[in-house]
Amino acid sequence: MENEIINKVASSGIISIDLEEFYQKGERKIIDIKDQLFQGLILREKDFREYIKTNNWEEYKNCFVAITCTADAIVPTWAYMLISLALQPFAKKISFGNLETLESILYEEQFSKINFENYKDARIVIKGCGSLPVPINAYTSLSARLKPYAKSIMYGEPCSTVPLYKAQK
Questions:
Q1: How far apart are CA 124 and CA 150, in angstroms?
Q2: CA 52: distance to chain centroid?
Q3: What tens digit of pLDDT does each residue of 39-68 get?
Q4: In Å, how far from its chain's centre is CA 66?
């Protein structure tokens, strides 16, 4: 057939990696210690320990939780640790920082399960657009992990890519 349409992308051998496939499903929540500061400035240990004791930590059951303080205050490290200990029986994952930091940690966990040897001499496109919140750190981390193995790394869609890396011959 002389008018046959050939899908050159499909026959190119390019491996497309969609970071949304590594997204861990589950609710994300943030705990901001600023809400527990006296006059928005000082953490009172007695009041804070009462908050730890009386707060309903079950509301974080099966959630991914980020702990932070958005107020310009000095918060002792042990305060974050106390919240982490209270959350431990309920939350799927607990991290310090904002939700983007939490998301980066979740992606790093997923990347640690990958055998990057499987990408030896591969031509790879890291897919760019999507509907889930993929932090930039996930893109930078994945590309750095792939570099020792890949023949080439591109960003975008297989039909329209930005070349990022090509191995020396």
A1: 7
A2: 27
A3: 989 999 999 999 999 999 999 999 999 999
A4: 12
Q: What is residue 35's DSSP assignment?
A: G
User: 16: which strand partners?
Assistant: 125
Compute the CA torsion angle 151, 152, 157, 159 (nearest 10 deg).
Answer: -80
CB 91 within 8 A of CB 55: no
Considering Cα of 46, then 35, then 69, then 26, what sign does the dihedral take? positive
Place of tokens 């939700």: 99
pLDDT given for residue 1 in this prediction: 53
State phi, psi for 102 to the nearest 5 degrees.
Answer: -60, -45
Strand partners, 162: 155
All residue ranges of the chain with pLDDT < 50 are 6-11
C-alpha dihedral over 120, 121, 122, 127, to 10 degrees?
A: 80
Longest dimension (CA), the chain: 82
DSSP labels, 148-160? TT-SEEEEEETTE
pTM to 2 decimal places: 0.86
Whole-number pLDDT of residue 11: 46
